Automatic annotation (TrEMBL):
Species lineage: Bacteria, Pseudomonadati, Pseudomonadota, Alphaproteobacteria, Parvularculales
One MF annotation (Gene Ontology) recorded for this entry: single-stranded DNA binding
Record bears the keyword ATP-binding: yes
GO cellular component, as recorded: cytoplasm
Family designation: Belongs to the RecF family.
PANTHER family according to UniProt: DNA REPLICATION AND REPAIR PROTEIN RECF (PTHR32182)
Places the protein is found: Cytoplasm
Sequence positions that bind ATP: 53-60
Name of the encoding gene: recF
Keyword Nucleotide-binding: yes
Listed name of the protein: DNA replication and repair protein RecF
Keywords, ordered alphabetically: ATP-binding, Cytoplasm, DNA damage, DNA repair, DNA replication, DNA-binding, Nucleotide-binding, SOS response
SMART domains xrefs: AAA
């Protein structure tokens, strides 16, 4: 274990989180009628959690349950009616007890069998307005096997990846994105209905432009953070990526103020009403932007890199964002969810990844099919086997 890692572990044991200034960890997770779990309670001691077991044992279900204690639809992007356990009551619930060393908070999310399409969110003993309220208290980043083709898939997946990283820094980013999407849908509906009320359309377009410019500005700020945090010291293990944004608003913000870009966007939306009505969608805006990644050392677009290089680039981006959060000393704790993270890494890269994660100090949950994949963690991690609808802690 490196000297920095030893210092971080000693600080966490003493009640201080080196990444955020306070020890904030999920200490207990309770899952009821969720996916493959009837009911299970899992106690975590603050160390990284390594969960192993064969395919279908329910490893990813635990990560998904944790991810739902945050904005959005979790690591799988599942619909609410996909979450209840088969043969269960029809409802489901996930709750987490979070301890920061001085105070304890409880976060819960679920749906009742009587109204399965409505998500119920609670913070301590009070109802929360929605999953977005969790972002003030917990922030998440994750990598899943579905993201391995991120650089080969459509731009939408890359936007969501960038927005998830941005949300870890700025909890308001989710609300701005939702406001933009809602205004865009409302405008399209008005266009399709042939609305002729220019004042009404103009008001909706102003809302769309204000939120859109803010979304684009937040994404630009995120790429700047990554550029600073993607230092070259780990390039031999997880290569750094130079990233940029391909989008009209994002590019315009490089030369103009956010207010000027917003006003130009309003004019463009008004001038494109007929085209957007015919197309059935808005043809310009941050919802069409793309994230461009280039392997820094090789100067090669990520989409042209090998599968292994693409995976390493993805891990490098996640680590860069975690490093940026550590340097920023962000208030809300970051939780990393890494599904099948070690499957395609050789032993040296696995060991290097674990050491980097340990030094960053964020709470991490990892899954893998074999216990041996996590041997390099040793006693630095808490190990669990997924079987029989529960997690069973094992000795290292």
């Amino acid at each position: 274990m490196s000297e920095a890692a030893v210092k971080n572990w000693d600080e966490r044991e003493a009640g201080v989180d080196p990444a955020s200034g306070a020890c904030a960890r999920i200490r207990r997770l309770t899952v009821t009628d969720f996916r493959s779990y009837a009911r299970t309670e899992i106690d975590f001691d603050g160390r990284p959690a390594a969960i192993f077991g064969p395919n279908g044992a329910g490893k990813t279900n635990i990560l998904e349950a944790i991810s739902l204690i945050g904005p959005g639809r979790g690591i799988r992007g599942a619909k609410l009616d996909e979450l209840p356990r088969i043969d269960g009551s029809g409802g489901w619930a996930v709750s987490a007890r979070v301890d920061d060393g001085e105070d304890e908070r409880r976060f819960g999310v679920g749906a009742n069998a009587s109204n399965p399409s409505r998500r119920v969110c609670r913070i301590d003993d009070a109802d929360a307005s929605g999953p977005g309220a969790f972002a003030e208290h917990l922030r998440f980043m994750w990598l899943t096997p579905a993201q391995d083709r991120l650089f080969m898939e459509g731009a939408g997946e890359r936007r969501r990846f960038l927005d998830r990283m941005t949300l870890a820094h700025d909890p308001m980013h989710g609300r701005r994105s939702n406001a933009y999407e809602q205004a865009m849908r409302q405008r399209q509906r008005l266009l399709e209905e042939g609305a002729r009320d220019d004042e009404w359309l103009g008001a909706v377009e102003a809302q769309m432009a204000e939120a859109g410019a803010a979304v684009a500005a937040a994404r630009r700020a995120m790429t700047s953070r990554l550029a600073v945090a993607a230092v070259a010291e780990n390039d031999d293990v997880f290569p750094a990526a130079d990233i940029s944004l391909d989008g009209e608003l994002e590019e315009a913000l490089g030369a103009q103020t956010q207010e000027a870009v917003e006003q130009e966007f309003v004019v463009k939306l008004k001038n494109r009403r007929r085209l957007d009505a015919e197309a059935g969608r808005a043809l310009c805006g941050p919802h069409r932007s793309d994230l461009i990644a280039v392997h820094r050392a090789k100067g090669r677009p990520a989409k042209l890199c090998s599968t292994g290089e693409q995976k390493a680039l993805l891990i490098g981006l996640v680590l860069a964002n975690a490093r940026a959060l550590a340097e920023k000393n962000a208030g809300a704790p970051l939780i990393l969810l890494l599904d099948e993270i070690a499957a395609h890494l050789d032993p040296d890269r696995r060991a290097a990844l674990f050491s980097i994660l340990d030094e960053l100090g964020f709470q991490t949950f990892m899954t893998g099919t074999d216990k041996t994949l996590f041997e390099a963690w040793g006693s630095r991690a808490q190990h669990f086997e997924a079987r029989d609808g529960a997690l069973h802690e094992t000795l290292t």
